[in-house]
Model the fold of this input.
Amino acid sequence: LQADSLHPYPEEEASFDWARVGDSSFVLIGIARTQVIDQYALLFQEAGIRVASFTFSAAVIYSAIRILSTPPAEGFVLLEEGAAGLEAYGESPARPLFSATFDLPPDRAAALALAELRLDGDTEPAHLADLLPAPVAVPDGWDPQRATMSYATAVAAACPWLALPVNLLPAGQRSKSSRAVYAPTVVLAAVLLVALVALTALAGVENRRYRSVLEAEIARY
Done:
């Protein structure tokens, strides 16, 4: 009921999901039109690509900068140019997560973001690439500033158990790798282990019996 009051779409036309932000009392909510989600899901399906999750930039950034490092505890602001405009993302002790898109000059957008985060107005905006783990190898012509969000998405997707579980894709359309496919392998490995233990034990029993027979023959002669 609360989520329905956060968007202008009819109930049947909106997809949303939420997750708790770390150990705080705040939650991150993602809302998108169901039609948009269905369109992207159909494109991936026609291309033969299995999709497990659709998320958004705030969840990606929050997760990616924590995979192999720890973000500054005193707070920070990131400014990234996106298709929808200038996106500001930040964290602070007063607000664990802030994300907004501005149609403003960078200095004005940074000032508004810093005010929302209750950070010092002299704080210099950082770049997302500086907080992400450095790639081991990159292709020729790779521009970290242009590919930053794609790289952050890949980093977050590489460790889904450590990422914020905000998934706008309906549960019925999510592709999953079921652990049941490993059940036959586990069962066969267990049977093989039992057989090896049994053979080892049987060999010990046979050795003791053979030694007893030898000792009896030695005593007899």
